[in-house]
Amino acid sequence: MALHRLTSFTLQVPNPQDVISYYEEFGLTDNGDGSLSTMDGGRQLYVEQVAPGAFRRISSFTVGCDDEDDLGRIAANLRRLQVECSIDGGRLVTVDPGTGTEVVVAPEERVRQEPFKPADANYPGNLQRLDARAAGAVLEERVRPRKLGHIVLGTPDAADSTKFLSEGIGFKVSDRVGFGAFMRCSQDHHNVLVMNAPMVYPHHTSWQVEDVDAVGRGAMDMLEDDPGRHVWGLGRHYAGSNFFWYLKDPAGNFSEYYSDMDCIIDDSLWDPESVEGARGLFRWGPPPPPSMINPEDVAAHMVGAHSS
Ligand SMILES: [Fe+2]
Predict the structure, then answer these.
(1) Distance between alpha carbon 142 and the CA centroid of its chain, in Å?
(2) Architecture of 3-110+143-307 per CATH?
C-alpha cells in the first residue's frame, strides 16, 4: 500500500491551553509549541486557536505515503474527481469537499513499534499466570498512547468525503455502516470515518494503547481527575473489533483509548461488510448515551442555527 499511516491532525478550539493540558493528562507529551507527541508516532496532534465565532474543528490532517511518486498518482485521481490540489515541496495539499478539511499527503517514515509482550492471563484449562496478581490489577503508572489511530468527522456531505478519500486520496473501505464508511490508509481497520451529521464537526479522535487493561486504566485515571469527562465505555466495537472508552476534552471533542483493532495486510482476505443495526456502533458495552450520537454542543448549535 502506498499510503501507510495517518500522520497527524490540527485541532482548532476556543481554549487551546486547556485542551493541551487535557491531552497531556491523557498521556501525550506536550512539546511546548502547540504540538503533542505519542510514544511511537511522534508529533501527531497540533492544537490551535479557532477563529472567533467558528465551531471547534479539525482544520487539517496529514496522510503518510512511501514516496513522491505516489503524489502524482493521487493528483491524477483528484483531477478525475474535479478536485483541485497542489504539489509543492514534496507535499500534496488538497481540500476534502465534504468537510472543508485540508488534507495533506506527504512521504513519511513508517511507524515501527517494538513488539508488545502481552501479560500472562488465565483461561479455562490454560493457566498462564500462577501464584501472582494480574499486571492489569497492580500497574500504577499512567497510560501513554502509542500512536494516533483514527479521526472521525461529522458532515451533512459524508458521501462526498468518502468518495474523495477513497477514489481520490486512495483510502480503502474496510466496512460500511448506515452513517458512513470506515476507511484505512494503513494496515489498521480504520484511520478516518466521515459520518452523516447535521453540521461539520470533529466527532472523536482515537489513540492506541497496549491492551484492554490500558484502555480501562487510562480512562479511570482521567475520570478520577474529572468524572464529567466520561462519555461511553468500556466496550468492544464490531467494526474494527477494538476495545474502546470515550472521554470528552475541554472543547467538547471526544477522545478514545483503543486496543486490539483488526489489522488488514492482505486485501483479498478481508471482506468489507455492510454492518447493520446496533453492531454498527458496538458489539458489547453499556448502551451508548444520546450525546455519543449527537454531542450536546452540536445539538445546541443546531438549535441556535434554526432559531436565528
Ligand atoms: Fe473510534
Answers:
(1) 21
(2) Roll (3.10)
- Helices marked H in the chain: 16-26, 69-80, 135-138, 158-163, 212-225, 290-293, 296-307
For residue 136, the CA-to-ligand 1 centroid distance in Å is 23
Q: Is the distance from CB of 256 to CB of 206 less than 8 angstroms?
A: yes
Output the CA 174–ligand 1 centroid distance in Å.
Answer: 14
**Which residue in 138, 280, 298 sits closest to 204, CA to CA?**
298
How far does the centroid of ligand 1 lie from the alpha carbon of residue 85, in Å?
28
**Residue 268 phi, psi (nearest 5):** -70, -15
Give the distance (Å) from ligand 1 centre to CA of residue 87.
31
267 φψ region: left (φ > 0), alpha (ψ -120 to 50), beta (else): alpha
Q: Where are the domains of the chain?
A: 3-110+143-307
Distance 94 CA to ligand 1 centre (A): 24
Q: What is the pTM of this model?
A: 0.96
Handedness of CA 227, 229, 231, 236 (dihedral sign): negative
Query: How confident is the prediction along the chain (308 residues), in pLDDT tens digits per residue?
Result: 589 999 999 999 999 999 999 999 999 999 999 999 999 999 999 999 999 999 999 999 999 999 999 999 999 999 999 999 999 999 999 999 999 999 999 999 999 999 999 999 999 999 999 999 999 999 999 999 999 999 999 999 999 999 999 999 999 999 999 999 999 999 999 999 999 999 999 999 999 999 999 999 999 999 999 999 999 999 999 999 999 999 999 999 999 999 999 999 999 999 999 999 899 999 999 999 999 999 999 999 999 877 75
Contacts of 135 (CB under 8 A, 6+ apart): 119, 213
Place of cell 515541496: 89
CA of 129 to the centre of ligand 1 (A): 31
